[in-house]
Write a structure and sequence with these properties.
The structure is a homodimer of 337-residue chains.
Chain A lengths: L14 H15 L2 H4 L5 E4 L4 E9 L5 E2 L2 E2 H15 L3 E12 L4 H18 L2 E10 L7 E10 L16 E4 L5 H8 L18 H10 L3 E6 L4 H13 L1 E6 L7 H10 L12 E5 L4 H9 L8 E9 L5 E4 L5 E3 L13
Parallel strand pairs in A: 5-6, 10-13
Antiparallel strand pairs in A: 2-7, 3-4, 5-7, 8-11, 8-12, 9-11, 10-12, 13-14
């Protein structure tokens, strides 16, 4: 009979580990490289310049409106690669499972990973599974890593922002953070916000096709838009100015933030990038972004003002004042991704 | 004042996350690629054919004779790459930390990772840190991923074993499993076995220099030597014969196994590979292996007997009998790596 829950034996490296691989991981992730089942996947790349990244995912709860830990784990790694201008080639997935986890839950997570990877056109080429005793982990943690090839001549990075660059985001911010919060039953929200979690590699491919003047792209995940803008300001040694009125925020996200005393600029996104582009190409880029399903609501939100020895992000508020948008201080939201 | 324990704030993506990165991860792993601090590390490879692998490490306890979870995490990934004939280029490290973990423990783990990576000549090029609430993880889990370049013309894999191939292991088996068991205080062992955990990439580089007739190499980790021999037999569709008398096992490991009713053939190793080489080159390869610190006690342990539609691993016992060495059945040892 098929096992209904994860046991320690599934992590032993023996017969039950193999059964789990065959009946679950290979069933869904099925591809020639994974099926080789060697110590490492062997890949032939189209370029010698690559991007390489890793992220662990510990989101709680595992399922939320618009996504789940599996979709998140695949998108997170794809978006980190794409933000560097890389075309994702392969992803690995390492699972830490808690003894007693229902197999049906794991299967839903794995199916979601497969669907997301297919949508993005990326294969899951290697993996690992460990099982820890009941009470020593929280259901399932997933670590994904990925590699992507970087086209010749591309040079995107956090230190490349220049005065005059225009900043574009591809849609409303804070949805993912609000989605996870409203999915937490203990908080008693009746309406749930839908996460923005999405694979952005195809959007970004199209963006790179219309202009070679994108200097920085960054995935606005943990710490939100405010944090990534600060990181980029610091790395590039520039002052940044953004306009509150131009930053798209959904009413539902505003509502959650008001109730809980949170600031949407610091809420996590899992399908939002900030792109810094030379001002001469900004409108053309914006139009291109709007043609993609994940860029429909793209907006120009601000610009790089000047070089600076004391880099700062200034928010021009709706009431014509301004305030410094600092890096995240105060209490964090744990387990948001 | 410096924080003495991990807090949820260290996983927020904000100021304390950055402090942890600056004062711990960058301090030890310090290298130009990591220091770029982009969404992904950018690497220039020497070849377009690569190996790519991932593993999570959940060993309990975190420290044992001869190693710790950090050394294990680095060696595990390096050895998976090296076993495919790849030269490791870069490693990523993703940490899942439990709130309350002592910072001094984390620092010891990180220092150990750095020392091991240096010894192997490999850089840690990207990373991630998540923190989960107290009681939702067991101290620290580490997931490492790695990429390595595969030299032209090399074709090593589990399906390449051929009749006549000789099987060599690079030293005594079962030490890692026995080391972790004897480090568990609840079991009350007075003498501790020393783990074999080691980076094998330099040994393997030398092996590949003396012969191009190595058909299979595999890291005998979870499930032990018996499991990897079975995996290779199945992938290559061959029967394998090994000789008990020729398989090196330390007395201390035998002692632990006798006490606990374990079989050393199924104990995990973290610095042992099984290499399958054409018989004409076996002695030359063995001599070369003995010149390396991790190959001093290398031994020929058996051979591939024949092609087979029902692949099997036969152990010729010391008493001149023989038994089938099947894949791991019965109770596993949880959290051994």
């Amino acid at each position: 009979m098929k096992q209904l829950a994860v046991t320690l034996n599934h992590g032993s490296g023996g017969g039950m580990s193999r059964e789990l691989i065959d009946t679950l991981f290979k069933k869904y992730f099925n591809n020639p490289v994974l099926n080789e089942m060697n110590d490492a996947a062997v890949l032939e790349l189209s370029s010698k310049k690559i991007a390489f990244t890793t992220d662990s995912f510990v989101v709680r709860p595992l399922f939320f409106e618009g996504g789940d830990i599996g979709k998140l784990a695949v998108c997170g790694t794809i978006n980190d690669l794409a933000a560097m201008g890389a075309k994702p080639v392969g992803i690995t997935a390492a699972f830490i499972l808690e003894e007693g986890l229902e197999m049906a839950i794991l299967e839903n997570v794995v199916r979601s990973m497969k669907e997301t990877a297919d949508q993005a056109g990326v294969s899951i080429v290697a993996g690992d599974t460990k099982v820890v005793e009941r009470g020593n982990a929280d259901g399932v943690f997933i670590t994904t890593s990925g590699i992507g090839v970087i086209p010749d001549g591309l040079n995107i990075g956090g230190a490349m922002a220049r005065p005059g660059d225009v900043i574009i985001v591809n849609g409303p911010i804070g949805c993912h953070g609000a989605a996870v919060i409203t999915a937490r039953e203990e908080l008693g929200f009746k309406t749930r916000v839908r996460s923005d979690v999405a694979p952005l590699n195809k959007l970004i491919e199209n963006m790179l096709r219309v202009t070679d003047k994108i200097h920085v792209m960054r995935d606005a995940t943990r710490g939100g838009l405010a944090t990534v803008l600060n990181e980029i300001a610091l790395q590039s040694r520039v002052d940044i100015e953004v306009h509150e009125r131009q930053i798209p925020i959904e009413d539902s996200v505003r509502g959650v933030c008001e109730l809980l005393g949170l600031d949407p600029f610091y809420l996590a996104n899992e399908g939002r990038i900030a792109a810094f582009v030379h001002e001469s190409e900004a409108n053309q880029l914006l139009e291109e972004m709007k043609n993609n399903e994940y860029g429909k609501e793209a907006q120009i939100i601000g610009r790089v003002v000047d070089n600076s020895s004391k880099p700062m992000v200034i928010l021009k508020t709706a009431g014509r004042g301004s305030r410094v948008l600092d890096i995240l201080a105060g209490e964090p939201l744990p387990r948001i991704c």
